[in-house]
Amino acid sequence: MYTLYFLPDACSLATQVVLRELGQEVNLIHKQQVSDFSRINPVGTVPVLHDPDNGQTLREGAAIMIHLLEKHPNPMFPHNDADARLQAIRNIMFANATMHPAYSRLFFASSAIHYADARQAFFASAADAINALWQVVENQLQEQPFLGGEQPSAADIMLSVYSRWGAAFPVNIQIGEKTSAMIDRVLAMDSFKQALKAEQQAADALRQ
Description:
alpha+beta; Glutaredoxin; 4-stranded mixed beta sheet; 7 helices
């Protein structure tokens, strides 16, 4: 059984959804349960995944995602089509290394900028950058329901997790019609609903 260190609604949620899509059992450990999390991950971020098959503890969301998709044959990650495989990796990296940092600017502004006017200006600038990235996604979805084609991909799951973050900030995030439809399909997946429920149960257990 895999062990996944997580925070509720963080990018670790995407890892858990993908594990469930792959039919893998997962034990969730809330980051706050660990007295010295830096021993597990020196940079202090989630997800962190322990793979029982090789004994390794893996860090960095994109690396974890690609490891899982390569290890477990699945329709989310082409294994026999080099071009489609490269596109899947590009999509994962776009989500992890481009869209995720854009949203991270909102969290930074909320915690680090104390003057309201300056903070709101930073929020607006960050939202503009995020909206431009969502337009890139919208353009890619003009001829297909998911970034991976007819099937939801890991990148679709990652982007759907990130899309939930904007509601916590006073910003106007604009997501196109086709992208919104893609996100709705991902959020309706049983694996996504199960992952949210498991996170909530783990968080409730921590508070008891």
